[in-house]
Each structure stands twice: as C-alpha cells, then as structure tokens.
DNA sequence: AAGTTGTACGAACGATCGTACAATTAGTTT
DNA sequence: AAACTAATTGTACGATCGTTCGTACAACTT
C-alpha cells in the first residue's frame, strides 16, 4: 500500500489529460496528427481551449503525447497478449492474430493508429516523425525477435518484412474500401508464408 | 495536323495549371492533400493566391485535380511501360519492377503519392476519398488481371494482395527509415512468392 | 478600331489556427 | 481562517486558412 499523498487536484488533472489523449488518438487515427486541432479537441471534450493547451504547452508536445498514448494502447492490445504465450510459433501466431484483431475491431476508429500517422509524417523532418519512426522500429524488432525464437524459420528479417506487409495491407484495404475480406486474405497469406517457412526447414533438414 | 485554333490565353492558362498541379502533387506526397494550402502553393510558384484559386474554384476541386494529375504520372511511369511487354509473367515482373523503381526513384518526393493520400483519406467521407478509392481499385484490378493472364498462377486475387503488400511495405519502410534495403526485401519477397506459385502449379500438374 | 473573352492580380472577408497571459476556481497546507 | 498551489478558464494576439470581388491586361472576334 502506498496510496499516500493523493492530491485531488493533480489527480483530476491527470484524468482530464488521459481523456484528452484518448480522444486525441481517436481523432488522429482518422484525421491525422495535423488534422488534430486544439480548438476542436476542446470543443468535443467540452473544456476550454486554453485548458487543453495548458496540459501540453505546444501542439507538437500534444502530438508527441498522443503518439505515446497510442503506443501504450497498442502494446496493451497487441504485444501483451502475445507475451502470455511461450516463445515459439504459438507466440508469433498470437501476435499476428492480435494485430489483425486490433485493426479489425477498430480499437482506433480510423484503423491502425500507426499506419495513419506513419504515412502522414514519414517524409517530413521533426520530433514527431522521429518518435513515430522509433516506435515503428521497436515493433519491427519485436516481430523479428519473435520469429527468431523459432529455430525452424530462416531469415527472420525477411519473414518479418513480409508478415508485417500483410498486416498493414489488410488494414489499409479494409479501411479504404470498407472491405472486411482483406483480413481473410491477410490470414491466408500469413498461414501460407509460415507453412512455406516450415517446409523449407524440413527440406533442408533431410 | 490539327493545330488549328490555338488560343494563346487558354494555352497559357493550361500551362500554369499544369505547373500548379505538378507542384501540388509533389507537396501532397510529402505533406498530404490537406497540408497542401493554396497560399503556400501560390508562394512557391510565385503567382497570386487568387490566381491559383481561380483555376479550381475550391480547395476540394484542387485536391481532386491533383489526384487526377498524380494518377496520370503513375500510369506513365508504372502501367505504360509494362504494356510494352506481352501478357504473361514477363509483363507482371515488368509491372512490379516498374512500381518499385517509381517509388525508389522518388518520382514524387515523398515516395508513392497514393500511399500518402490513401492513408490520409481512407477513413473520412467525401469526394476526394472516393476518387482515391477508385484509383486504388483500378490499380488492384489491373494487377489482378495481369496475374490472371498467367495460367500457371492460381488465385490471382490472393497473389495480387500479397504482391501489392510487398510494394507498399517497401515504400513505407524506405521513406520512414530512409532505408533503401526495404526495396531489396520487397524484390526478394516478390521473387519468392512467384516461385512458390510456379512450384505449386508444376506440382498440381503432375 | 471597338468590343468581347480569359487569365491573373490585389485587397479584403470571416473563420480558425496556435499561442500568451491574467483571472478564477478547487484543493492542500499552514 | 489565511496563505498557497495546481488545474482550468476567458480574453486577446498575430498568422494563415479558404473564399469573394472588382480590376487590369493580353488575346481573340467582329
């Protein structure tokens, strides 16, 4: 127990901050981090514009905080569940299924948050882009390591590239064309690619 | 020869219009179609804001015209070259190579124009989104038909999904991380997937 | 030469953007 | 109860947004 020193004021502040960031991430997944305006955010949350602003001090800090908040949600929905499965093919499958569910269930209303903001910031300089690129790298590494833990699969880098490509393609297609079939295609592609990797391993072995 | 009736005024108008749209497509590939502002466009081209505006009548029309202009450039760089090759595996390979070159050579400074604007508009309603979705459908269909012309390959829909996923992934990774290696991975993925399809065909045949 | 058409311009519009700062309210400490 | 602190608000700012309008000028028609 360390529930000492709970200042009701900062407690309240942190709560509104969380509400702001949750809404911000939702908006940004649809309209982008630039489409996210402080005034609009304040209007939708029924608080004052200066109240929102005061929490972050600048729009860039709001964007950075939004990315961090979205990353936390991503980890909770996609990464954590896979960690309950022991390393190996099972964990990888859980990870990929988790990602597809995270996208298909519209955890963010605009589909995958990072797909949206990645495409928005990939070609411009700045701290927001760097932050997004950092999280993207982490995600790539994590998928690669998860694959690397399966000795049957050679070239985890290449396989990670292909599997992530299927996931992002499913998200993109399903959002743009309102077509849930894209997820079936991605699942089939993943299944096929993993089967191929296993085949190659057994062929090499003999 | 039918060079009759060349009105010097409309000729001049069309030329500035082309210049506007070329620059607009460049900007939009980096900053998005919303990041594209009429005032900025006018500033960079050293013409008046009202002059730019007069050509389109509204920002939405400017965005639509920009998408059309970008589509024309895409067709010229990717689709047309493949049409010089007879239908079959050769044409497909030419098409995919052409796309990767179009992205890698930065025909648009922000990488593939359609990757950028697709992610920007995929989750909002409106005519711009519909236009982008239409072009995306055309592209999907064209790739699928090109594959379908190869009798050895079963399930052109699925294969098109996977191949396009590799292309987009290469574009995304290379732009975000400034990593040209992504294109090698995509080429390897394409090669592998086509080899697998051919293998499956020969196995079925016997 | 006179009249018409098409492009481009400059100035101004209301709205909204991000930001600044002083005033106010709510909660904690003395 | 008074003093203090943190979260929130209201008001205002300069800049930029998309858009409108009247005008200037070059090019074409008669």
Question: Briefly, what is this?
Answer:
Two copies of one chain form a homodimer. Chain A has 206 residues and is an all-alpha fold. Helix content of chain A is 79%, strand content 0%.
Task: Give a structural overview.
- 2 copies of one chain form a homodimer.
- The first copy, chain A, has 206 residues and is mainly alpha-helical.
- Helices cover 79% and strands 0% of the residues of chain A.
- Chain A is built from 9 helices and no strands.
- In chain A, helix 2 crosses helix 3 and helix 7 packs across helix 8.
- In chain A, 38% of the residues are buried.
- Chains A and B meet through helix 1, helix 6, helix 7, helix 8 and helix 9 of A and helix 1, helix 6, helix 7, helix 8 and helix 9 of B.
- Chain B binds a DNA duplex (30 and 30 nucleotides) through helix 1, helix 2 and helix 3.
Radius of gyration of chain A: 20 Å
Q: What order do the helices and strands of chain A follow?
A: HHHHHHHHH
What gross morphology of chain A would you assign? Answer: elongated
Strand content of chain A: under 5%
Rounded to the nearest angstrom, the distance between the terminal CA atoms of chain A is 59 Å
SS-based structural class of chain A?
mainly alpha
User: Which oligomeric state applies?
Assistant: homodimer
Number of helices of chain A: 9
**Poorly predicted ranges of chain A:** none
Mean model confidence by pLDDT of chain A: 94
Please name the two chains that share the biggest interface, counting residues whose Cβ lies under 8 Å from a Cβ on the partner chain. A-B, 42 and 42 residues
The amount of helix of chain A comes to: over 70%
Say how many strands of chain A there are. Answer: 0
